[in-house]
Write a structure and sequence with these properties.
Blueprint: H1 2-26, E1 30-33, E2 36-44, H2 50-55, E3 64-73, E4 82-89, E5 95-98, E6 101-105, E7 108-116, E8 122-131, E9 138-145
Antiparallel strand pairs: 1-2, 2-3, 3-7, 4-5, 4-8, 6-7, 8-9
Length: about 150
């Protein structure tokens, strides 16, 4: 069990490192809504190890990515529960719905949604968030150019 948790933490660290690099290249990696910050990233699913993917029933692939959303309230350092929904649109204006899975690791909560893409595709990700305990819905969008891993 400890080995599994270590593998999971290493995979999450790799995804977080990628998100930090993406943030440096693209600017702010979150949206602020009053006392809430909604952190977001989009990364290729191959960054997650096969064991972690199996544990959370996630499909890895060269043409697959994961949208990662985490909602922080106030000065909290771990994500909190929220209702997350969203969609994505490609360059041809084809729209697909994102289906988010809640992932809980000790005190942390975050949400992952898988998607498929083609190389050189520019995706517009539309996210809607309602933090637990709040009735207010917050929406935002971000764009990313995707590349198929070979």
């Amino acid at each position: 069990m400890k080995r599994f948790l270590l593998t999971l933490l290493c995979s999450c660290w790799a995804a977080a490192s990628l998100a930090q690099q993406e943030a440096r290249e693209l600017g702010q990696p979150y949206e602020s809504f009053g006392e809430y910050k909604v952190f977001y990233s989009l990364f290729n699913s191959n960054f997650i190890s096969p064991k972690v993917a199996e544990a959370y029933n996630l499909v890895r692939g060269n043409d697959r990515a994961l949208v990662n959303i985490s909602v922080l309230k106030g000065k909290a350092i771990s994500g909190s529960k929220a209702k997350i929904s969203g969609s994505y649109t490609n360059l041809l204006q084809q729209q697909r719905t994102l289906e988010f899975k809640q992932i809980r690791e000790q005190d942390a909560v975050y949400y992952l949604a898988p998607l498929r893409f083609t190389t050189e595709d520019i995706l517009t990700i539309n996210i809607s968030v309602t933090p637990e305990g709040s009735e207010q819905n917050h929406s935002f969008s971000f764009k990313r150019k995707m590349h198929v891993d070979k």
